[in-house]
TrEMBL record:
Compartments it resides in: Membrane
Domain Cytochrome c assembly protein: 499-821
Membrane topology: Multi-pass membrane protein
InterPro entries xref list: Cyt_c_assembly, Cyt_c_biogenesis_CcsA/CcmC
Pfam families cross-referenced by the UniProt entry: Cytochrom_C_asm
Descriptive protein name: Cytochrome c biogenesis protein CcsA
Source organism per UniProt: Paludisphaera mucosa
Superkingdom, natural source: Bacteria
Keywords tagged on the record: Cytochrome c-type biogenesis, Membrane, Signal, Transmembrane, Transmembrane helix
Main location: membrane
Keyword Protein biosynthesis in record: no
Keyword presence, Amino-acid biosynthesis: no
Amino acid sequence: MRRYGRLLVGTGLCGLLVVTVAAVTPPGHEGAGPAKLGVGPAYDRIGRVAVMHNGRVKPLDTVAREEVKQVFGRETVKLLDDRNEVAETWTPVAAFVDWIVRPEFWDSQPFILVDYLPLKRKILLGPIRAKFAAIAARPETAAEDKQRLALLADVEELDAAAVLNFLKASKLEASDRKALEDVAAKLLEDHKWLSPDELDEAKIRHGDHDEAFMEWVAQLDEQKRKFDSSPTLAARLTEVEKRAIDVGHRLATYKAYSGEEMRSAGLVRIMPRPFGREALDFYKVVIPKARTAANLRDLSPIEFDALKALDTYWNDVPSDDRHDPGEDAAFDKKYAAWLAENSVWTPLKVLLKADPDALIKAGYPDKETRAFLDAYKAFEQAENAAPGTIAVEPAEALLASSRALGRAVNPTYYPTAEAIDRESRFNAINPFYQAPMAYGAALAMLAIALGFSGGRVAEMGTAGRAFHGLGMLALLGGIGLECYGFYLRIQISGWAPVTNMYETVIWVALVAAVLAFVFELVYRRTFTALAGSGVALLGTITAANVPLLDPSIKSLQPVLRSNLWLTIHVLTEVSSYAAFGLAWALGLIATVYYLTATYRRSPSYGELASPLVPGFPLFSVGVGGMAASYGAFGPNWTIGDPLFYVFSAMAAIGGMISLGTVFALAGESVNRLTSRGIDDAGTPESEAARIAAADRPKTRPTVEEIKAMAAPATLDARGKAMQETAAMVKPLSNFIYRAMQVGVLLIAAGTILGGVWADYSWGRFWGWDPKEVWALITLLVYLVPLHGRFAGWVSTFGLVFASVGCFLSVVMAWYGVNFVLGVGLHSYGFVEGGSQGVMGVILCSIMALPLGAAWRRKLGNLRPASTVA
């Protein structure tokens, strides 16, 4: 272990430095330059206004964070100036409410995320060409510059470099140079946002004509729906077209909140509906008026909104039970209960556009309604006068009046201030985003501790024990943060914390950390705590940064609405992934030891590199075929889906062979650097047999093996190094075995309980649903190495290799069924997208590690030439 001690200590210190710098630097810190708006207490109070969004009542703060992140890509909006530098920083609540109050300002600001450079070029190409033409048309522009501008205008893939190269040789006026410098800045890859006005004005070349950006997006949406229903009905969307749909949805989201249209997707539903006698009597006026109107849009906003609520209820009940309010007492009672408990709330736009007297006729209480409208107008005036910096009084008045009106309309179901404040506190503290800091610190300090005495706590000196203790405290801190986060999340949602992919990822991180902490308290060898910190850090960072993992708390699918089954089935099943993840991380640690270990001989670099002969060409052909399927070599080389999968398999296999060979070469290099003075004469046969026995399956030894192990032998440097590796890997294999046992126990129980739930919900215990099948496959896959090890058929290295390889079945059951297959009764867990290509590269890269270790171990355990008869 001494050979690795300095490396581990150095690596851990570097990691600790990174974590420390990240901890003392607030996210998004920009120095004192940019103006920071919305940071005062006024916006904290506005953020606590209760609204209904996506079927759930939540603080405005939560809605603002979700919608601003969807439009801008981050929760905090940073507006850029002409030099592409941050000019203003807006908190999510301030930005969101300012969208509503001052849309004329935001329409010209670049904050709509367009992070795909080819799409941004396509959007900007029309305005840029118009700017080129305007500059070329000026009489003061030189003839040479006019000619070069005409050539630039014909470039389809125009980039910033081409514009800047033109400016270097041009003789333009200062104002024109500044305009083209702005064009170049917008074409840079780090300029990822465009303004709503730029998107509205963009003309996209589509076929033989130009059309508005949103019209193009609407056609792409229709094409996507047709392709999803049947690939023969429409062509597959290109990457540019897919990204265009995303940008179109962002622009539509902003316009729904800032514009005048009553789009249901972008309405701030701020008040529950009245359901008393006055509300029902209001329909006696609205319904006759609607039946005689030439256009329903002629109704007032409050009348049209009340009619929509009635139509929604009518659609949910049998036709025989449909009556006009006021005609049937039984219907009125049911409809009033539905209005109180299940109907969506009234939008803010409806309340603002309605006359106060009309609202009172619709059932809203007089005093509270007028107070709320007055408070909102005062807030709107304050925001217009001092955007992002209003005093707390108008915000406090709006919050108090909205709560007073909400309680007056629906005292039973309007949320309490405590419930809203709890979610606001959860958003502000954000424990799941803080946990990676603690886990990162734990990982760094435990890596340092592992450098002392091979991680044996009892043999560490004062410094080693200090780092180990601090690492354990940091790990406990991460566990505490996650537990607090789950406590708040459960209080907010009312459900067990495994209802979507995001929650399962952070739950796996928590359970892995807890298992590692418990194992470390029992065995005191640092390995499990280090592995658990790594898994927890990976899980929490993934949850915080992968856009597909949506942290929003949403309404549950009906099939999931059982806390009993969520707890005993889903929690159990997902917790098994944590145990298998811990075994996987321990296996990777052991793999690194095997990869850099000393064996009987040191193979030459030529021997180690030999798999590159078939591997790299196979990888190259596979990558070339995949590129052809995306049209990289032109339409004549485009291939269909079957060949695409063939080439993908070739690329994966060739890539694993090639990268595994590179890892083997790197491991040999590290071994030679850290094992100076070890010659290639080989280890004495008796001692070699004794060391090798530790890595063999546990079978009854022969008489010769007993004699060889009993014979005294003097260890040379190579023998000592081999013995050291065996001593390090042995406890790792034991921990892997224990973690696998825990995982198998949990997944077996979870699969059986899932069958019972399926029988309760769907009327059958087992239906060969993909999620069920892959849970069973995962159980069987892990039973093989466990039974093999118990029976003595699987060596220590075999168990290590299996801990990494078997985790692929967990990835398939957890990620693959949701993101790759996307079929089955468990469709409530499916998410569109999934970045399958990126995930495939990551998995192949990880599997290359044990493959490289196996190849180097195989060559290293060949008998040295000097001992061959």
